[in-house]
Amino acid sequence: MKTHTSETQATVTPALALQFLREGNARFVNNLRMSRDLLQQANATRDGQWPFATVVSCIDSRTSAELIFDQGLGDIFSVRIAGNVINTDIIGSLEFACHVAGSKLIVVLGHSSCGAIKGACDHVELGNLTELLSKIQPAVYEERQTPDPAKRNSKNAAFVENVADLNVRRSVRAIVNRSYILEHMIAAGKVGIIGGKHDLASGEVTFFDDTWLHDSASMQIIAG
C-alpha cells in the first residue's frame, strides 16, 4: 500500500479519516494487516509528509497508534505522552499537524489499565511525574460512580476505567477550548476531533461518539 500524497490527503474529510482508522483497527483486531513496503514509504515521504490524521495517545508500549490502526509511514501523526494528557506543547503540535500539515482528524486515545491513570487515582507523587499526574486529577475528582472512599484507588478496576474515560473526554474539551485555531477549523468542518479507548486485551478501539466534533452544530456539545 502506498503512502498518502498531497493529492490524496486533499480528498480526505474528517469523517473519511475516522472511517480509515476504524477500518484499520478492524484489520488489526482480526490480524489482517495490509502488506506495506516500509522502505518504499520511507523513500516516498523523504521530501514531504501528508498524514490524514493525528492521534494523541499514551506512551504505553502496547498502544502504538500506527500498529493498532494499521497505518504505514507518513499516514498519521502520533503524539504520545503518559496518560494522554494535554499541555501547551501538545496543542501547538496539533495546530501544526492540522493547520500547517493538513491533517483532517484528531483522536485522543486512552487505553485500559493505564499506569498513569492508576498513579493519579492513588495520588502518586514522584519528581516531575507529579505535575503530569496533576493534569489527570480533575478526572479523578469528577468520577461520581464510586462514592466509597475506600474504593477510589487503583485496586478498583472499574474506578480506574471510569477515570480513564473521563480523562479522554476532558482532553478533547481542553484541545478545543485552548486552541482558537483548532476550534475554528473544527467549526468550519475542516478538521474533526473525537475521543476513544484502546482495549489492551482485545486490541479493539471504541470511539466515544459523544465527543465527535466536526462542524459548528456539533460544537454545541462543548458550548453546552
UniProtKB/TrEMBL annotation:
GO terms for molecular function: carbonate dehydratase activity; zinc ion binding. The keyword Ubl conjugation does not apply. Its cofactor is Zn(2+). The keyword Ligase does not apply. Keywords: Metal-binding, Zinc. SUPFAM superfamilies: beta-carbonic anhydrase, cab. Zn(2+) binds at C58, D60, H111, C114. Belongs to the beta-class carbonic anhydrase family. This is Carbonic anhydrase.
